Amino acid sequence: MKTPRLIYRYIALRFLKNFISSLAALTLISFIITVTDEIRSLIELRTGLGLLLKYFAYKIPYQLLYMSPFASLLGTLLTYAGFNKTNELMAMRTSGISTMKIILPALLLSFLLSLTVIILNETVVTALYARSTEIRVRDIFHSVPSGAEPRNNFIFKSKEGWVAYIKYFNGERNTMSGLTLIYQNPDSTVKKRIDAESAEWKNNKWFLSKCYIRDFTGSNNETAAYFKFYLSSITETPGELSRRKKHIDQLTLRELYKEITALEVRGEKTEEERVFFHFKLSYAFSVFMLSFLALPFGLNTGKYSGVILSFAISFLIGFVYWQILSIGKVLGMHGTVAPYAAAWGGNLLFFISGSIMLLKLKK
Description:
It is a single chain. This protein is of the alpha+beta class. It has 2 domains: 5-142 and 271-359, no CATH class; 151-238, no CATH class. Helices cover 61% and strands 17% of the residues. It is built from 9 helices and 6 strands; from the N terminus they run H-H-H-H-E-E-E-E-E-E-H-H-H-H-H. A 6-stranded antiparallel beta sheet has the order 1-2-3-4-5-6, with no helix packed on it. Strand 3 and strand 4 (190-202) form a beta hairpin. Helix 2 (49-85) packs antiparallel against helix 4 and helix 8 packs antiparallel against helix 9 (339-359). The longest helix is centred in the first third of the chain and has 42 residues, at 99-140. The protein is elongated. 29% of the residues are buried.
């Protein structure tokens, strides 16, 4: 039987209505919790009302997207539990409409919402969240945001071919200590080595202090010289030497991909960045995944069940999903499992569970 478009439109509108109302309610709860946690310290700093409103306003889009998977879950439960309660689900099945056609509007809309989350994250939301952090650091706490991240004991590989071993990099003061530079020949033998006690970025140049320079001109030939101060040929800025200029939560997928590429060129580890890259994608598609998992529960909800049961089921599923995400992130950050497995494992588990439950439903 061909399903009338009117039925599809009716189901889709009901789902969107429940999704939007759920999203508004969950975001409001999250916003109240955030304000309650922060307002006391902000008031103690004598922050003006205008600045407070601006700071919290920039955080709202991030909270909307953060709550969207759980709103999709609750919206799906409310929609199909509501159809059960009013006998509309029975009427649809009696008229010959299959279960797959009944759930199709929710599946399509939740998938489109997942894509929307990705687009908004890449274009607007991440930038606004970064702006709220900037307001907090610079305007409220009156701190100077660091242009580079401090680091300890790391290796930096330049595009020009030399390799730096840096004991400590101070992103706040643009200084380094315990610096060793290795320049290589085409056959990978050492051509020159520079060991400096410290280095400082001044006038867009790196000045080395108390350094020894050794040149290896041929086999068993070596010349060495000591310099109290030496102008190096390093062209990389402090920001380029640093791991990143923004906190990882404030990076878009494109920025994270560039970060991963840059770290690979330097020969550095990229586990953390790869985990966050995959988690940004998997969390966006959890809008679809949680809606998919909620469908069997909504279709099986009893006639006299309502909003309270929907909230209870949503809380239980959401709690389990969040725990799986947290465990996956920890395992991925420690290198126990691959980044993609850590990020997508929860979605895959929920997809398999939802598929099994849907297959057991009456057609």
